[in-house]
Amino acid sequence: MKIIDKLYLSPEYSTLEELEADIAIYDATTLRQLADCPRKYQYSVLDGLKSGSGNKTVESRYLIAGRAIHEALDVLAVTGDEDEALTKLTEDWGDYDSNPCPENEAHLTHNLLTVVLHNYFDYIKTGPGSQFTPITLKYDDLNFDRLMGGKFRLLEDGSVLLSESSLLMRMTVDGDDFYYAGKPDQVVQNTAGNTYIMDHKTSSSYLSSWHVSQHRVSNQLRCYMGMMHELTGLDFHGGIVNAIYVGNKASSDTFKGTRFASYRYNWSQGHVEEALLNQLGWAGLIAHHEHMNYYPQASGMQCRSCNFSRLCEAEPEFRDGVIYTDYTQEGWRDFFTL
Ligand code: SF4
């Protein structure tokens, strides 16, 4: 199936690069990171440091695997063709099998991800995924009033596939305007016509109800509902979290745990407005920290799983040196060629 990219820019933006720079700042993930730890926002967004696991310029295989699975499942949702989805996985994964990585990521190979996808195909044929189809609308039926810019995907018949559309919108809550950027994994409806935002989560931990229930108040999915409502005029019913286990036993025949889990959360308009208000509060923090010219550290719990902890552990006066030696490509090259 042929898909054509279509770019929309409001008069505020003249190039895609300008739009993407603002999307990077107002992206849902970025603002959540800011809410978790302003210092992490400083390192990753302002300083542009990569937060790979344990080594600084090599992207985490978990991130790459998550992205490859997302892309493959998107192809599956659009085409319904398992072979095309597997081909997409192979293309995206490339030769990552031979890239160096930490021991705890070494199980993430093309072979394991292929097994994961095959198992997932079986799972959704009878499971919850089978009842959802991607929503498409005519491009001219979209409401561009609040859209600052967007990268859409058009199908051969000219309709817009809302899934994986990358959008920057001006949202309003309690009379205040703020920018919000997002790229929903899948925008779907079930056979009853109820509409949902579906998000694929890959996890290295055994799945359990507890794991997926952690998303029951997802700010991101609730804001996506608000954003999609403004763009399409459709009322959204909630979010669906599709969790996929990619841990080191994912391809084992004797695995006893849960490999896949899907949960549906129904959210009201009140839930959506509250999520937008949260987002407004976090966006306001950017201005506050800019004014202070200081980005405070997290209070502790966030640090346990943070890949910048090595940097924060260093004495403040030595951090520029640690950034150079451990977090930049230049530092690595110097270190290995000494
Ligand atoms: S180690 Fe802690 S304080 Fe430092 S960036 Fe990470 S979460 Fe923030």
How do the SSEs run, as a string of H and E? EHHHHHHEEEEEEEHHEEHHHH
**Share of residues in strands:** 15-25%
Helix content: 40-55%
Identify the overall geometry: globular
The count of helical stretches stands at: 12
Q: What is the radius of gyration computed over CA atoms, rounded to a whole number of angstroms? A: 21 Å
Query: Can you list the ligands bound to this structure?
Result: iron/sulfur cluster
Largest sheet features: 5 strands, antiparallel
Uncertain runs with pLDDT below 50, 5 residues or more? 334-338
| Number of E-type strands | 10
Helix/strand structural class:
alpha+beta
Distance between the termini: 51 Å
In round numbers, the mean pLDDT is: 87
Q: Keywords for this structure?
A:
alpha+beta, five-stranded antiparallel β-sheet, five-stranded mixed β-sheet, 10 strands, binds iron/sulfur cluster
SSE blueprint:
Elements: E1 4-9, H1 16-26, H2 28-36, H3 38-46, H4 61-79, H5 82-93, H6 110-126, E2 133-134, E3 136-138, E4 147-154, E5 159-173, E6 176-182, E7 186-189, E8 195-203, H7 209-213, H8 219-232, E9 238-245, E10 260-266, H9 269-292, H10 309-313, H11 319-327, H12 329-337
Parallel strand pairs: 8-9
Antiparallel strand pairs: 1-4, 2-7, 3-5, 4-5, 5-6, 7-8, 9-10
Helix pairs in contact: 2-3, 2-9, 4-5, 5-6, 8-9, 11-12
Residues 37, 39-40, 43, 297-298, 302-303, 306, 308-309, 312 line the site of iron/sulfur cluster.
